[in-house]
Amino acid sequence: MKIAVVAPSCPLKPEAAEKVAAIVAARGDCTLVVHPQCFLSDGHFAGPDEARLAALREVMADDGVDAVWFARGGYGSNRIAEAAARDLPGAARRKRYLGYSDAGFLLAAFDRAGLSVAHGPLVQDVVRDGGEAAAQRALDWLVRRDSASLESGLVPGGRAMAFNLTVLSNLLGTAIEPDFAGADLLVEDVDEHDYRIDRTLFHVTGSPAIRRATRLRMGRFSQIPANDPPFGRDVEAIVRDWCARSGIIFGGSADIGHDSANKVVPFGG
User: Fold this and answer.
1) Which of these three, 116, 149, 182, is where a domain ends?
2) What single DSSP character describes residue 42?
3) How far apart are CA 215 and CA 256, in angstroms?
4) Which of 29, 80, 87, 171 is 20–30 Å from 196 (CA)?
């Protein structure tokens, strides 16, 4: 199995590429091709929009590539997501796509277009504490669809979707918004104040499209900055409150987040 790595947002750090390449070599059940675009630099981005889009479209159209693994989050994939999902070649429909964080814009666009996508570890996660386990988990799903890689609360045969909450809020109402009807919706976030989480959930749970989801499950909300004055309620209370206000079922916790323990959530059912 051949897996291609592209960076639709920020550049991939060379040490991350080296560590993942060593893991793949030791496994012996797949090959990894890291596109040179991953190391480009154009301000915040891994190359200009045109270069990032061209690299992604190149590997999507390559009949020899079986899966596309997104290199890193950050910001930038929204700038190319709609174009990336337009006029898809046949080869693009035979691949699996994996990532999270900012890559959620691509997951949404590709799911809407009928592609096989999953929320799960990025290549860059290999340099986190516990990062080798994250990389192995991602590869186990990409290569073997190993059920041990999956978030344990997923309903067998059911439709699920997972997003960074801020990304989800920003894609609602756009041309890449997917169909949430009948899906378990899992959300997580990082580096957001409690009041920002509250405000974002106001927008997300107020969306008629989101209200068609079966339930909302709460992943990890990490590295929450201190608020002055204190917000007065924790994140779970915030999530429960907006679920109650909107009539969305609160489905409890979910094992996803911006960390090396992040589990895989395939979309679809």
Assistant:
1) 149
2) B
3) 16
4) 80
